[in-house]
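Weekly structure sync, notes
Attendees: PL, DS, HV (note-taker this week)

Item 1: LETM1 domain containing 1
DS walked through the input record. Source organism listed as Pan troglodytes. Sequence as pasted into the shared doc:
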Amino acid sequence: MALSRVCWARSAVWGSAVTPGHFVTRRLQLGRSGLAWGAPRSSKLHLSPKADVKNLMSYVVTKTKAINGKYHRFLGRHFPRFYVLYTIFMKGLQMLWADAKKARRIKTNMWKHNIKFHQLPYREMEHLRQVITFNQDLKCLFLGIISIPPFANYLVFLLMYLFPRQLLIRHFWTPKQQTDFLDIYHAFRKQSHPEIISYLEKVIPFISDAGLRWRLTDLCTKIQRGTHPAIHDILALRECFSNHPLGMNQLQALHVKALSRAMLLTSYLPPPLLRHRLKTHTTVIHQLDKALAKLGIGQLTAQEVKSACYLRGLNSTHIGEDRCRTWLGEWLQISCSLKEAELSLLLHNVVLLSTNYLGTRR
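Item 1 (cont.): predicted structure, written out as C-alpha cells:
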C-alpha cells in the first residue's frame, strides 16, 4: 500500500512536469498558426471605395431617369392637359436656373476684372437686364407671401393655373401665351400714346425757339394723322428734350406717369421715384444700343431682334424679321446720336417711332 502511494505520487509529479511542457508547446504552435490565420486583409477591401461610389451614383441616376420616364408616360396617358402644364413648368424651372447661373457667372467675371455694366458685350448686358427685371417683378413676391400659411401652396398652384399672365413670368408661359400676353401688354402701353402726344402739344407754347415750336407741332400732327416720322424729323428736336420744358428733370408728374405706362413700368409710385426709374431704364437702353451698334444687328437671331424691338416700344410679335431689323436700325441711328443730357428724347422715341410703323397704329 505504501509502495503504491509512492508510485502514484511520482507519477503525479512527472505528470505535472510533462503536462505544462506539452501545454506550452501547444500554445506556441497555436501562436504560430495564429500569426498565419490573423494576417491583415487586402487593402483593396474597404468601406467606401471611389469606384463603388461612382457605380452607386450611376445606378441611382439610371433608376431615377427610369422612374421619371414612367411617371411622364403615366401623366401623358391619363392626364394629358396636366402633363402639358407640368412639362412647361419643369422646362421653365430649368431655364430659370440656367439664367440665374449665367447671370452669376457674368457678375463674378465683372467683379474679378473690374468691369462695369456698360463695358459688357451686348448679349451679357441684355441677359443681366432681364434677370434684374425678373428680380424686381412683384409677381414672385406676391406668390411668396400667399404661400407662407400651411397648405397654402395648393392655392398657389391653382392661382398659377387660373392667372398665368398675372402671376407667372415668361419662363412658364406656353408659346401661344407668350404671343397673347405680349399683345395684351402692348395694348396697355399703347393706351398712353395719345396722352403723351397731348402733353407734348401742351408744352409747345413754352418753347422759346420758334423753329423748334414749328418742328414739334409738325411732328405731333404727322403722328396723329398716322404718318411714320423720319429720323431727321426726330433728331431735329434734340434741343427741346435737353432742357426746359421737356428735359428729364422738367417733365410734369402726369407726363412722367404716362411715360412709365408706355415703358410697362408701374405708375403708382411718387413722381420723384418714377422719374428716377425712367432715368435708369432709359440709360440702360441707351447703353444697350451702343453695345448693339458695336456688335451689329446682323449678328442677332430673329428672336433677339424681336425681343429688342419689343423692349423699345414696337409690337414685334406680328411683324416680319426684316421689317423688325429695319425699324431697329432706325432706332439705333437715333439713339447713338444722342448724348446723356438728351435721353428724354430717347424715352419719348418709344412713342414717336413706334406708333405708326407699318400700320401698327390700331
